[in-house]
User: Which sequence fits this backbone?
């Protein structure tokens, strides 16, 4: 019933949702940052090194990963504030590449292109702890690897829901309105008394922190990371989550990450043709629905229908 | 004195959009800023709200120097504005636009918003209440949920005014509020402006529609090619030969 393979895909979907949200949140103030892969790698390496070399517990590694990515976000965000649109995209993409090259060449710390193996696995570590305390998954009718996959999935699900709650509340408030105002017309927003610099930095740092946190989770779910995991392909992939799903509303990147992670798996039977289909879907979508699958009117329609349903019941 | 513009110049390259412009605005009055196209009226608004930094001169708001401050700080002090070419937040609803206008008079930050604290809930309720009040005032009750961009032009101008008022300004700068409106709409806008004045809010008004200016303004300042060429009561200005030459004469066509 509990298939570790399915659960693993589900776990990757959740990590990708976090990554999609990280680019979305920065985009909320109209800043297109392609540094997500860079921030993700900072989070991943930080947590991996802290747990492998210093033996710190995983939760501390995750927090440190998110935190260091946030600090880097602040350092990158401040000087790039005056850049907009494609210029900011290029600068942040460049940042991501610099980070990757640093990880490749700083061999004494990161083992270079070989990467870091043997990173404590989130599920296995928990299982080991529980077994030490006398618990056996068999008492729940689960095999060890089933228990591991299930634990990882549930932890990620919890963290993703928490993140969604955080941002849906934030966006639905005075702060969120300020974000939107800046995105739509920065000058007019300023005339409303909105401290645009503060809010732009805020979303940049939040996006960086979330990408770093997701990267740290990635490290502890795969158990192995190398600079090849964080190339600009990854940055573009994350961007596509938001663009495909829709970058106007919170649920856009959630849908985009879910759909685009799942689809290649579903099409696995078509082997080498699957990325052909992947590409075709993207092109078709950009022609017919450039704002992404999920946009505001669609959400309103769905909400309206739900409310009608309630009235009827 | 609420606003004092002291010898303000704004030079773009070699072109002086404003040259040593000097005027004062008393609390509670409405001053009309008129002049032919390109006279520097909107530039003056942009300088007062720090969209532009003046090349020379200083601006004081209730005794405090505001030139050099950032736009949002100036809004905080109590100066709101509307825009000549309407700058609503298009994809937001009417209500959301006005709520954004309340930003400067509310405080809830990330912490309060995410935890939905009592403070945040109370403040949000107050924002909604105020928004409702303002939409009533400008005659747009019932349009709360309409996308701002879907409204007719005249209504959009009123949303802009409601949004500017949401920040509880002491001074509001209106940039051509009746541009493109018909007579009855203009009439309504004049009534709205009088109402705003009735709340004790000082108004600086840019307007081309002379009947409107004559109707609502106490005093006028006339700009031409960036220079103040006249200042005084409406009647006085109407008979000023320099003004007639620069502006009113051509306006008749």
Assistant:
């Amino acid at each position: 019933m509990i298939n570790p393979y399915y659960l693993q895909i589900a776990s990757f979907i959740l990590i990708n949702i976090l990554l999609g949200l990280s680019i979305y949140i920065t985009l909320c103030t109209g800043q297109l940052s392609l540094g997500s892969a860079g921030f993700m790698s900072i989070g991943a390496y930080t947590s991996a090194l802290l747990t492998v070399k210093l033996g710190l517990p995983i939760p501390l590694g995750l927090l440190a990963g998110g935190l260091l990515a946030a600090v880097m976000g602040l350092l990158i965000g401040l000087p790039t504030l005056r850049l907009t649109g494609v210029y900011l995209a290029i600068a942040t993409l460049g940042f991501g590449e610099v980070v990757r090259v640093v990880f490749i060449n700083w061999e004494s710390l990161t083992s270079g292109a070989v990467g870091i193996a043997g990173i404590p696995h989130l599920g296995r570590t928990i299982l080991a702890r529980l077994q030490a305390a006398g618990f056996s998954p068999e008492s729940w009718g689960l095999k060890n690897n089933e228990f591991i996959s299930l634990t990882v999935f549930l932890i990620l699900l919890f963290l993703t829901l928490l993140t969604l709650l955080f941002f849906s509340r934030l966006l639905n408030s005075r702060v969120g309105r300020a974000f939107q105002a800046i995105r739509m017309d920065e000058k007019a927003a300023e005339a409303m008394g909105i401290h645009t610099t503060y809010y732009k930095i805020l979303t940049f740092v939040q996006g960086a922190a979330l990408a770093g946190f997701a990267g740290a989770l990635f490290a502890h779910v795969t158990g192995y990371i190398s600079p090849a995991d964080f190339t600009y392909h990854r940055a573009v992939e994350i961007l596509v989550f938001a663009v495909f799903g829709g970058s106007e509303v919170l649920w856009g990147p959630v849908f985009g990450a879910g759909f685009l992670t799942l689809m290649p798996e579903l099409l696995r039977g078509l082997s080498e043709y699957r990325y052909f289909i992947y590409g075709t879907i993207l092109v078709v979508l950009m022609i017919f629905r450039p704002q992404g699958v999920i946009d505001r009117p669609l959400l309103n329609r769905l909400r309206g229908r739900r409310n009608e349903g309630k009235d009827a019941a | 004195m609420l606003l004092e513009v002291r010898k303000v110049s704004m030079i773009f390259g070699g072109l002086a959009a404003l040259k040593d412009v000097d005027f004062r605005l008393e609390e509670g009055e409405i001053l009309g800023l008129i002049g032919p196209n390109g006279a520097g009226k909107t530039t003056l608004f942009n300088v007062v709200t720090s969209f532009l930094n003046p090349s020379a001169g200083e601006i004081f708001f209730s005794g405090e120097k505001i030139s050099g401050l950032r736009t949002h700080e100036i809004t905080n002090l109590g100066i709101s504005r509307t825009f000549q070419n309407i700058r609503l937040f298009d994809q937001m609803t009417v209500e959301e636009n006005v709520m954004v206008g309340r930003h400067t008079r509310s405080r809830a930050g990330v912490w309060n918003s995410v935890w939905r604290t009592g403070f945040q809930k109370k403040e949000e309720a107050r924002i909604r209440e105020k928004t409702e009040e303002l939409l009533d005032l400008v005659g747009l009750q019932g349009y709360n949920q309409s996308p701002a961009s879907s409204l007719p032009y005249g209504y959009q101008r009123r949303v802009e005014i409601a949004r500017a008022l949401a920040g509880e300004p002491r001074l509001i700068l209106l940039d051509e509020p009746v541009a493109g409106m018909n007579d009855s709409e203009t009439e309504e806008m004049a009534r709205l402006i009088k109402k705003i004045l009735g709340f004790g809010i000082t108004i600086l008004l840019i307007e081309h529609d002379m009947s409107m200016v004559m109707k609502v303004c106490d005093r006028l300042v006339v700009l031409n090619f960036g220079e103040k060429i006249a200042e005084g009561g409406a009647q006085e200005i109407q008979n000023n030969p320099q003004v007639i030459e620069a502006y009113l004469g051509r306006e008749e066509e």
User: Anything to note?
Assistant: Chain A touches chain B at residues 166, 169-170, 172-178, 180-181, 184-185, 187-196, 202, 248, 296 (CB under 8 Å). The mean pLDDT of chain A is 93. The CA atoms of residues 73 and 84 of chain A lie 16 Å apart. Chain A has 14 helices and no strands.
